[in-house]
Amino acid sequence: MCGISGVFALRGHELTSHPEELAKAMADRLIHRGPDSSGTWANGRLDVGFGHRRLAIVDLSSAGHQPMTSADGRWTITYNGELYNTAAVRSALGLTLAELHGHSDTEVLVEAIARWGVDRTLDTVIGMFAFAAFDRDRDELWLARDRFGEKPLYHTAIPSMFAFGSELTALRAVPGVPAEIDRCSVVELLERSVIPAPYTIFAGVRKLMPGSRLRVRRDGSIDEYRYYDPTHVALQTPVVDRTDDEAVEELEALLAEVVRERTIADVPLGAFLSGGVDSSLVVAMMQQGGAAASTYTIGFEDPSLNEAPAARLIADALGTDHHEWIATGTDALAVVPDLATIYDEPFADSSQIPTTLVSRFARRDLTVALTGDGGDELFGGYERYRLFAQAARTQRIPRFARRAGGAALLLFSEDWLDRTGAGPVGRLLPRPLRRRTGKRVHTSGAILRADDRLALYDLLMRVHRDGPHLAPGGSRRSLVSTRSLFDALQPVELGMAADTVDYMPNDILVKVDRAAMSTSLETRAPLLDHRLHAFAWSLRNDQRVRDGSGKWIMREAARSRFPAIADLPKRGFAVPLDNWLRGPLKQWADDLLAPGAVAENGVLNPPAVQALWHRHQSGEADLGADLWPVLMLLSWSARPA
């Protein structure tokens, strides 16, 4: 795993700095992604420069040094990632190890591009990656990102050049890169806790979409193409008629294969073990394939948030070399001041805290850790899929009646409803409605007023609905997901497909990548394999979700190995944010939320932010989830550039 950077001069312009010097300055900001070595390259005309920071995983010798040029001299690559089918690609190219300088996947990748071109190579390779490749003969720059978006890639075009980097911080080393805040991105952050691709916090900078490649010519024209779209898989994969036993058997064989491929490394390798079905099956397949697993779990003192006991049961059943850390509140809170730097642009999924902690814990021994990410999206694991299905039933009500009912629920303010729910009248309400009454009632009103299932999904994915008020001048963006997806699938399957192109790459994978790479740890997600993805969509619906529970097929595969956890309810990687913001994090938050500090930020509405903070501190409502994006934005703004 590595960090990449580079610049490409546009026709009629000259680079203001030597391209290698500029690429090096960019790459030096990515040393956490690649502490083992660095490299730069420039073409003969000095109008292209690549930078690289290396975290050596496969072929630790200098034969894996980057940037790397193909044997015919035509292509040069700077590459971040791992290919899992390197041997198969090498064989398809007709190459032997004796014909190569070493055994790195980088060399095989650049030779594949040299012989097949970028597009055929992307259709052939299996892995997680982001890379840039310069074609000397056609004088073109190519960028590409893996199918599901495990590895990041940012880019921008300014009058003199096109620039790219693994993180936003690399681009900020380039003179003239736009730094104007995108207010619509701020609204997305405040309401969804993330800034979804292709957007970033800066109006003039973009993220390359997952499963996409991009070609840049000297005249500045850009040709972008999505070579892998999970929505097409969801819509076009035919259902295969299998018995339950046949489906489980096929799943187990596929799991064994994808896990085996991801255990190839020349450095210490282990796994995160949460105690859930997904990571437990990954570890079981590691052991089955002969990779002695070291497992790492982080727990908290609060029993409701502590997955360590379940993880310990799995580790004992499998006989892993298990490592457990029960983190205190002090341990967790010590991470908070680092988050703005770790995540590089504002990011506000609060489970970033335990993810950072477990990454630091595992890095003491490991350089590579396997994870269970992707199982919920592939096999219907999230509870909100069932909530989405329930909400979708309201679409059967005539539209005029829904809109009238929704308008009635929105007549009273959230504040008034919260006070009512907390007062004597609240005792007449069902217990779940007595806390955050206003938000629950307003959400119900918004559900009734939703025009279609696309609007419903968008509603359920937004933590907070007041972004434009908190950040004046910004507005919501429509989701990336295509409307055809929302018209063709039933609610549970629709939620899975939409999450695979939206929530998973923009939240889950960002969270894990930045947390792990901040401590120079490579993570690999075996469940994010396009063959497993196609298999998941070839299942009958009841082989994913049965009797109201998701991931039926994964639970069945787990049942024979560790029955004690096969039917445990899913628990998120959560932190007690509401209590922390009234306790040990209160002073930190107070400083960031001071009216003068908020006003100086220039993006947020100080009175609206103060009202949110006061309501939370008074105990009138638990607003930690609403406040966390505000705090992450302010913390990011206050960090050194």
User: Strand portion, in percent?
Assistant: 5-15%
Major β-sheet annotation: 6 strands, antiparallel
> Which geometry do the CA atoms define?
globular
- Give me the CATH superfamily of the domain at 2-228: Aminohydrolase, N-terminal nucleophile (Ntn) domain
Structural class: alpha+beta
* Mean pLDDT level: 90
Distance between the first and last residues' Cα: 25 Å
- CATH topology name of the domain at 2-228, in short, is Glutamine Phosphoribosylpyrophosphate, subunit 1, domain 1
CATH architecture call of the domain at 2-228? 4-Layer Sandwich
Q: How many beta-strand elements?
A: 17
Question: How would you characterize the overall build of this protein?
Answer:
- The chain is 44% helix and 15% strand.
- It is an alpha+beta fold.
- Among the domains are: 2-228, Glutamine Phosphoribosylpyrophosphate, subunit 1, domain 1, CATH 3.60.20.10; 384-497, no CATH class; 577-638, no CATH class.
- The chain has a 6-stranded antiparallel sheet with strand order 2-3-1-9-8-10.
- Helix 3 (105-116) packs across helix 4 (118-124), helix 13 (352-363) runs parallel beside helix 23 and helix 15 packs antiparallel against helix 19 (453-461).
- The longest helix is centred in the middle third of the chain and has 18 residues, at 244-261.
